[in-house]
Design brief:
45% helix; 9 helices; alpha/beta; single chain; 215 residues
């Protein structure tokens, strides 16, 4: 029986694409670089803020100085606008309530910067999530499993009592690296093909709830 459901954040619990896209494009324009179309962002999200920025810069201008300038502009803009368009996916708040009622602990491990992750999770989900970690200085991001394993240790559960839920191939790799089961969700930023290797696939929050509760 599962005791702990660990979630990715963007693309899994929250549709944050619009705010991330606007912050990136703002930062690109501030540095005299071309903006990027929505579908490119959809394909690139999930690998962390710095890798996202690096992938948006033309090769001839892609250097550490430029990356850092764009990151600075991104952080400044996103910090003030990260909840302009972002919303929970349909059924997510009810899902978290149902899991809590069934004594399944919920946690988040995200590649979004930790300071943003804490603020946005508190805003949308209050105290529904037991442990929340974003990208922290000195810690490797997913698919490195260390933060997932840290959450499991903090909450004092066994790995076979945990499952990780996400919308990208990065999330599936993270679960495998942590030696726990995974669920890929289809409402996020990737296709079914990208989620190959997941132990389970959910196309609705009701399907996701049933998988978690019945395992």
């Amino acid at each position: 029986m599962l005791k702990l459901a660990i979630f990715d954040l963007d693309g899994t619990l929250l549709n944050a694409l619009g705010d991330i896209e606007e912050a990136c494009n703002y930062a690109l324009v501030k540095n005299n670089l071309p903006v990027v179309e929505t579908e490119k962002y959809r394909a690139l999200l999930g690998r962390g803020r710095k890798k996202l920025i690096e992938s948006l810069i033309p090769d001839e201008k892609n250097n550490e100085e430029t990356v850092n300038k764009i990151l600075s502009h991104f952080n400044s803009y996103y910090g003030s606008h990260m909840m302009d368009k972002t919303i929970p996916y349909d059924g997510i708040v009810e899902l978290l309530d149902d899991l809590n009622k069934n004594n399944i602990i919920t946690a988040i491990v995200s590649n979004k910067p930790h300071e943003f992750t804490k603020i946005i999770v508190k805003h949308y989900f209050g105290d529904k999530i037991k442990v929340v970690f974003g990208q922290r200085r000195g810690f490797d991001i997913k698919p490195n499993p260390d933060t997932v394993l840290e959450v499991i240790k903090i909450l004092d559960v066994e790995q076979n009592e945990c499952i990780y839920i996400g919308d990208t191939e990065i999330d599936i790799m993270t679960a495998k690296n942590a030696n726990i089961k995974s669920i890929g969700v289809l409402w996020g930023y990737r296709s079914l093909k990208d989620l190959e290797g997941a132990d389970y696939i959910a196309s609705t929050t009701d399907e996701l709830k049933n998988i978690i509760i019945n395992n």
